[in-house]
Sequence to fold (195 residues):
Amino acid sequence: MPTPDNTRWVILAGGQASRMGGNDKGLIPLASRTLIEHVIDRLKPQTSAISINANRNKERYSHFGFVFGDNIQDYPGPLGGMHAALHQYPDSEWIGFVPCDCPQLPVDLVARMSRACNADTDIAVAHDGEHIQPVVTLLNRRILSKLEQFLAAGDRKIILLYRQCNMVTVDFSDQPDAFINLNTPEELEQFGQAL
Fold:
């Protein structure tokens, strides 16, 4: 069973950020700090096992923690980072993931995600009360073979994989703003003004 002490957490910063004009999202400044620093600030009190999945600017990301890239070329999206993490940490039964553009993650994310799992759970996914947040997830490594088959078939839609697994949703409807993610320069500017 996962607990905050035996789960490892990975910040996914490996995408192309096309809606941010190709700028590396995790390194974009928000209120005088980078987006990834805001995410780390949220996670650090909850777990000591944080690393970063990035395919560009690895040297810059390394200032914030251990960095590893995808094993699959051509930016397969979040699933590529999940695949890489399962290979990077073969001794970790449970690995959690959060995006690099979500600066207000719940302060009890790790504990609540861990509590939602039981012995049969493959994947726990955060739910904000209206929608699931597919990149805020805690998964068991037993899905690796299923994930590899999925990627080999050319599939990239994360929710399609989840439907093949024993998935539970974790209710965060009391904190719907915790999953605001910043995808465009306009969203970033608007959010920064509200801080």
Q: What stands out?
A: The radius of gyration is 16 Å. The chain has a mean pLDDT of 88. The chain is about 30% helix and 25% strand. The longest strand covers residues 132-140.
